[in-house]
Fold:
Amino acid sequence: MNKEINSEVMIEVIDLHKYFKELHVLKGISTKITRGEVVAIMGPSGGGKSTFLRCMNRLEEPGSGQIIVEGVDITSPYVDINKVRTEIGMVFQLFNLFPHLTAIENIKMAPINVRKISDKEATERGMALLEKVGLVDKAHSYPDQLSGGQQQRVAIARALAMQPQIMFFDEPTSALDPEMIGEVLDVMRAMAEEGMTMVVVSHEMGFINEAADRVLLLADGVIEEEGTPTQIFKNPTQQRTKDFLGKILSL
Amino acid sequence: MSNQKFTSRNSQLEELRKTQGIIPWHRRHEFVFGALFLLVVYALLLPQVEFPSTGQWLAIGLFFLLSLAWSGLFLSDEQKPEWAKTITVFVILFLAGWLFYRYADADWERLSHVFFNWELMSEPMEGGTTAWDILFAGLKLTLQIAFFSAIFSTIIGLLLAVFRSFENKVLNIFIIAYIDFFRAMPIIVLMVLIYYALPYTGITLDAPVAGILALSLNSSAYVSEIFRAGILSIHHGQIEAARALGMNPVQTMRLVILPQAFRVVIPPLASNYVASAKDTAICSSITILELLKSALQVQAWRANPTAIIAATGIYIVVFVPLTRLAGVLENRMKVNR
Structure:
């Protein structure tokens, strides 16, 4: 991708470790994410990809190490994590839309209650976002009336409504039927082109090849390999990487 | 040709009827009406005595069994009209009742005079009130107590469930202790303690207030478990999405979890309220003149238990519709998203 990447560091992860009871899931992850960068995290299942992503907005509690988001050390006990989370938008594999609210209500909820903006302004912003993801006519539909692809796009709009600086995607298309994956990736591609800082856990090779600036290959809790998509896909250096690529490319 | 294995016996029957005019002998009109005629004759010839001998009992029993067999054949035929089947069911029920009435060695006159003595119930006593007036005054108290204890138990139960969701270890110890205590304590003991013992600590409560308090405390333990189950049933992803948007735990609970949990808990809550409403009868032990106590008093004054039968009827008439209403509410919650 040809775009200006500002060198402002949005997130810095220093020697992150995470344990689930006895299991050492993250074994010392360190990396930096700069503004405008699209970072893809790939790797075999159980390698720690989702855990790593969720540690960065503390949906999982880090075991040890430091995570600094926009200059704020979120691993410190004094941090207001709710404020930090308003700067990071998150899109989930299972969408997690609020089923008792319509699409536009889903989108409006956080801006009104957390950013404290007026209902009118939130509705305007929400409708603009729905237009951006191509779902204006579904504004008053409930999630169970929408297809998976439509739900995920509403979820993206909901995250964007908070005007975050960074967007996290946790396998956003893994629960979608093949026909709907395209519409969601289109939205994500557009966001990348507009310069949004994105961290994406995904298996979508096509999207990663096109849109990602950097790929992290996470396996067994460590970053096996790191590089541009071209480097990783064409010239992997580590055996683990080759094994993993071999498996998914054979599909 | 249809696969013989999958067609039911009745559609095979239809096939037979249509294609070949062949009907099993027990489904033919001639048999059905003939047997019915014979049963009617049998009924007319039933023994006319008050106290049937063993042989006569066998005859009566045989009659009833044959009637059942006939109606079984009739009802199992899909070809016969629905209205005829409905009539058959009612006739069988009526027949069972009539046989019992006719041949059971019961003194129906006396039974009616003792337990179903409606004249006595409507007869004014001193002060011009009838037994019915006393019962309805009791009903009013029962409903008031049930209503207020439902409200308070819901508020307390909801608060307990919400606090429990914070998963604070120390707080949880107190909450669980509360729930265990009030589930273990018999309501009558609790009520008697509150009304008779509490005044010694300086807190004197009126009987209705004491009753409502006891019922609320007891019911709140169950209500909190219902709410807790409802809250836990909400998919964890909902909480994650809300927190990821920057909402704090209180907002998450208020805007995302509770609205969804509310729909889930309506059926078990409704049945809890109805069960709790029947517990109002326990208030009779602390001098409250609710429905049951009123009935017992009338029984004492008139030396006649009809009042209790009447009270039972009132309980059924009032609470069965409430239970049905809870069912309707549940269905409306599902449809109206």
